[in-house]
Queue: 2 jobs
Job 1
Amino acid sequence: MIIYSEKEICTIRSSNQIVAKILAELKKMIKPGVQTKELDEYAEMRTRAMGAIPAFKGYRGYPSSLCTSINEEIVHGIPSSRKLQEGDIVSLDFGVLYDGYYGDAAVTYPVGKISERARTLVETAEKAFYKGLEQMKPEKRISDISFAIQNHVEAEGFSVIRTFVGHGIGLSLHEEPQVPNFGSPGRGPKIKPGMVLAIEPMIAVGDWNVEILDDNWTAITRDKSLSAHYEHTVAITQEGAEILSLFDDKDEGSLCFKEREHA
Ligand code: MF3
Ligand code: CO
């Protein structure tokens, strides 16, 4: 498990700000009729324009820059000519490598008007992340995050996917420790300043059994129930937890691109 310096966290912040900016731009493209591969192409083009490298492309053979997971697809959906339809929910999971450090975030967006149930599911995934975030302070332990996420999701009547976990991130896309989205509290490493973690609840309307499609990537709920995903990269600093991948138009002070240092 790596403890990062403030200077390193600054670069990880830059990397995550690129991720956040591109996810915010992709949000505007989400509408019925758009092909998921158009989203992927846009994300890759914008990443390279900002001097970064798509983190997922080529990772263990993954073929695209973006993961687009629709409805019962949980994670790792491969962009294709499939068109988004009114009423779908689509999770966009995206990562980049910038100046030697990784950023990673995911969000589930509605396509047009969605059902009440779908909306509650999407909101619960996001809220579960924030419940986990509340636990990210020194002296707490990793599984306190897990427990808080599971508690919230199950209290809303949904289930937590157990096959995939959150993770440390920085010099690599996936580092120790693993951060499950379920489990009893008080276990695992203590949370310390300098830790950088990607917290990513994946939840479903039905049960948590997972099936992998023939493309060897796309994970779906076995019962085909709707699934949502929400992820941010979070740094623990002396002041507390900071979400590095939050897009904020106004907060330019949080950016630390090299250009800015030289300005
Ligand atoms: N965001 C995913 C994660 O946190 C990464 C996707 S894996 C890839 O694990 F293979 F699609 F790149
Ligand atoms: Co991740």
Note: Residues 104, 167, 198, 200, 231 surround cobalt (II) ion (ligand 2) (CB under 6 Å).
Job 2
Amino acid sequence: METEVTLIEVAPRDGFQSVKEMITTSDKLAIIAALARAGLQHIEVGSFVSPKAIAQMADIAPVLQGVAQLPQSFECIVLVPNRRGAQLATEHVCQRLNFVFSASETHNLNNVNKTLSQSLAELRQVQSVVERSERLSLRVSLATSFDCPFSGKVNAQHTLALFQQVLDISPDAQLALCDTTGRAHPFAVRSLFERALALIAKPEQLIFHCHDTYGLAIANVAAAFEVGVRSFDTAVAGFGGCPFAPGASGNVATEDVVYFFESAGISTGVDSEKLKEAIALAEQIKGAQLGGSIRLLNRSKREASADA
Ligand code: COA
Ligand code: ZN
């Protein structure tokens, strides 16, 4: 079914990576399966990164094996920070690589131990891995597009110049502008996306990735939608944090974005009743930092009916 907006579920990567205690592969797969049953057609299931950087992602190979056995099909996305990650991904079943680097040089050094020009060189290599592969597509995520946890506000002109460099290397890739810290304001979101949309051929290439640290995520999603963005990263139960963005809270909650769009008559393709199963599983993960408004509302309703 054609939906009016596309939600890309990122809890199994952006959310899980912040949990210190190892989540078992079968618990990860149970949530991924529940998300697919709820209608999510694009799920970032993990990353090929150094286990020294993020131990939680060390089971990406068995996660991908498990995903291949699931009855529901969806676009399976894996994050890669370098060519090594892209090469590893070619040995497994997945459909899209999400190459990540940061607009902020300081954040990029902290997150992937590379300067911006080293990461652009890495992107060229990842692009050629994708070109050689018959089944892989590419997405590029520009972390800290608005704000950096270490060096503060990121200049929009600088972000757009990098955005253009990415387009020059990978003209057909999806491109995500990420509010990694959650400090972006709806006015800044509107302005940056308006300018980014003017640079790309196909608006459907553009994705907004946002965090809800200051409670502005839904307002930011609305601002991006109003200027023409139609794809959004979301995390069930607002699962989140970021090990390389101190203080940031989870991504905007999938169920909140579903509620926001569906209550305005805009289809997301996600069944909010079925999504409750994935929320319940997320609530059982030890050490998970959760957020979102709908989840808390449903919990109070459940508690009230149990008391009655
Ligand atoms: N997947 C798995 N292992 C990898 C890897 C990848 N994509 N890239 C490198 N490695 C391994 C190397 O083989 C090496 O292993 P060894 O010590 O056993 O020989 C080790 O990691 C270091 O490799 P090196 O190329 O020197 O990388 P680095 O130490 O400069 O770290 C990154 C660079 C990108 C690998 C690391 O910073 C990283 O994985 N960051 C991920 C950050 C992240 O996921 N952030 C959240 C998402 S925004
Ligand atoms: Zn994020």
Note: The pocket of zinc ion (ligand 2) is lined by residues 14, 178, 180, 209, 211, 242, 251 (CB under 6 Å).
